[in-house]
Amino acid sequence: MKKATAFLLIVALLVISHLLPYGFSQQYSQTYQLLNEPDGSTYYRLNVTAQQSLYDYYVEKTHKLNSNTDFAKFVTPYALQPIANSLATIYTDDEDFTNGVLMIVHQIPYEATGPVKYPVETIVENKGDCDLFSYIAASIIKAYGLDVVLLYYETQAHMNIGVRLSHQPYDAREAAYYVTYNDVRYYVAETTGGDWQNGWRVGECPSKLKNAQVQVITLENSEQWAPGQVSASYNTLASSTLSLTISPTYLIQGSTVTLSGQLTPILQNVTITIYIKVNYSPWIALDTVTTNNEGHFTYIWNTDVAGLCYVRASWSGNDLYAGADSPIQAVTVLSMFFILLLTMTAILVGAGIAIFLTSRQNQPQIPEPQPPEVPMA
Predict the structure, then answer these.
(1) Fold of the 238-334 domain
(2) Fold of the domain spanning 22-217
(3) How confident is the model over 3-23, as pLDDT tens digits?
(4) CB-hemisphere CA count at 13 Å for 289?
(5) Is residue 122 a contact partner of residue 132, using CB atoms and an 8 Å limit?
(6) Quick check: 183 pLDDT over 60?
């Protein structure tokens, strides 16, 4: 009896782990040191957090590259906007701002990676190489509003960025190096290098790249929007929580589902993103909704899909609170085809049973054989 109970418990746990594709939501945090300027004496500590939901979104987003110009798709200004906003409180000069961004990417451990990745992936995993660092730097700088491009040296298998500045770099320790494209000077900013305090500054270029053949990739095709953002603050971010309730959890395709939840602390007019995952397709952003004056949100979902759907809600946080993900909830949406098939099957089974019972009743009754009479002596 005990063995059977243990077996059933193991089966139940396996089923639950299969139904929920991820465990509890996690929050990823990184801290970056900054100076008020190169060779400066004022230090800052920038705390950056990313939610599991945003990381999962980018991990499952397509990473396909059809040409070199597709590198621009991996620049995500909106997702990293809070980092740019934080740096803007320190740096008022565009050269200092760019050098602040370089300080950040110079602190990420270098590791040669094969597949291309989005900035949120690199920040969470805390490792990358030249192209991944360049995507992060370009994202932050573009979010700040500067004209920035990717510089791809195909023969050198290398990438860095070029930044259009309002003046020639003052802090470059050599003659400022730039690439001209469409009559615009883009000062080279090298994103690799582990020494964040004394590393490459904007306008400084590795000697092997000077006069090397370079492809300038502009960022018109960079990501314009993301379902969430990282959090960034010089203070330790307080925690937050987000709940999610779904009703009903079993329904027919085309019906509506009510999603509701509560954000703690109570904050009004903040954006909550609703993510869904249908069967084993990638996570996508279903929609966004705002909280009311009690920190509560409600969303009516008209189910135009069918299958086993996973739903989660997410808040990106702000400069005081880290973001939060709700637990993942499962919703079973039955298609009309499945309902019709089930109905037809039930009808056929019922008809078969009725025919069987009717045929049994119409069969002639065969008398049971009687035992032979035994003559009396």
Answers:
(1) Immunoglobulin-like (2.60.40)
(2) C8orf32 fold (3.10.620)
(3) 444 333 333 433 443 445 444
(4) 22
(5) yes
(6) yes
